[in-house]
Design goal:
Blueprint: H1 2-30, H2 36-41, E1 44-51, E2 54-63, E3 70-74, E4 98-103, H3 121-134, E5 142-147, H4 149-161, E6 167-171, H5 177-191, H6 194-205, H7 212-226, H8 237-244, H9 248-254, E7 284-289, H10 296-305, E8 309-314, H11 321-324, H12 326-341
Parallel strand pairs: 3-4, 3-5, 5-6, 6-7, 7-8
Antiparallel strand pairs: 1-2, 2-4
């Protein structure tokens, strides 16, 4: 009897040891940068891309290894940087999720050619496809997460190349620039103190966007309500660094100088893909926030327009809800990735 108990105990210990070893191997695999190029650079790759204006390089950095879940991050702006996603470092590695930081052409860590011919949706989509190929991402592991302008780029990529995708995440972006403008003008603006909104509109009417008072009003009354809902002195260092690195040439050319919609001669002013959403069949998560610069009801509608969608609502979040509503945003993203990976979506 004692011998049987001893044998059972031994088998249990061996099983537990094997499980532990598997977990340790998994962890070691995730943080494996033994490829000479990766190890030398810490996962950073400058990827060469071809454009109508010549050859350039864009910056990427891989965090972790997971053959089934690889998330390419498309930052906003246009012309901002990957730095807006740095809070992911505190969550995704422990989940074993591989993600790839990426600065689009024109952004701080990539080449920054001074050629406005390059700042088009079509050219950026082609760039993402070149990056995908260089990183060897495919329909069995490739997830695309785009926030704000990155959400526009993610949608446009899916319209053309969704057969390459395993999953799509559209974060804090509507599918229509005219509707975004309408929401900013008719809903968000009037929520400001009347005298503040009138001052802001006067500055914009006079195209006095660089006036320190205009910037002060935006940061004090608008950004802390609808961009990141924290006092400015509590904004994360990564966010401040990101805005410091903004390329205004790309941003103004495509988005325009105003924060109340896409105006002037900005190339995205008439962008509208509402009718094309129904063509997206890949599993799609759409994220909207109560206090966003974008209409959360419209984003919920988007999640129903795509063929295989889910909506994630962040009740305490704004445009950067990965920071001001992390308890909803990040677990929701993780659940989506795992559900799609396990065919539970």
């Amino acid at each position: 009897m004692k011998l049987k108990l001893l044998l059972c105990f031994t088998l249990i210990m061996i099983t537990l040891s094997n499980c532990k070893n598997k977990e340790e191997v998994s962890s070691l695999d995730y943080f494996n940068y033994s490829n000479p190029e990766d190890q030398y650079s810490g996962g950073i790759r400058m990827i060469p891309i071809k454009t109508p204006a010549g050859k350039f390089k864009v910056w990427t950095k891989r965090i972790g290894n997971n053959p089934k879940i690889k998330v390419l991050l498309l930052h906003g702006g246009p012309g901002i940087t990957h730095e807006l996603y740095e809070c992911f470092d505190g969550y995704l590695p422990k989940e074993g999720i591989e993600y790839i930081y990426y600065d689009q052409l024109g952004s701080y860590y990539s080449d920054q050619p001074n050629d406005n011919r390059l700042w088009t949706n079509e050219r950026f989509v082609d760039e993402v496809e070149q990056v995908r190929k260089a990183l060897d991402l495919n329909k069995d592991n490739f997830y695309l997460l785009g926030q704000s302008w990155g959400g526009i780029l993610a949608m446009e990529y899916a319209f053309k190349y969704q057969d390459n995708l395993k999953g799509l995440i559209i974060s804090n972006m509507m599918s229509s620039a005219p509707l975004y403008n309408k929401y900013a003008e008719e809903v968000l603006g009037p929520k400001l103190p009347k005298e503040v909104f009138e001052q802001i509109k006067t500055f914009e009417k006079n195209k006095d966007y660089q006036n320190p008072k205009y910037q002060e009003l935006l940061f004090k009354y608008y950004y802390t309500e609808h961009i990141l809902r924290k006092p400015l002195n509590e904004w994360p260092e990564a966010v401040n660094r990101c805005f410091k690195h903004l390329n205004p040439n790309v941003y103004i050319f495509m988005q325009g100088p105003s924060e109340f919609g896409i105006t002037g001669n900005a190339t995205l002013k008439d962008w509208d893909v509402r009718e094309k959403l129904k063509t997206i069949s890949v599993p799609t998560l759409v994220i909207g926030s109560k206090n966003d610069t974008m209409d959360p009801k419209h984003m919920e509608w988007m999640s129903k327009e795509v063929q295989n969608g889910r909506f994630l609502y962040c009740p305490n979040g704004s445009h950067l809800s990965q920071y001001d509503d992390q308890k909803i945003y990040i677990p929701g993203v993780i659940k989506f990735l795992n559900d799609v990976n396990k065919n539970k979506f």
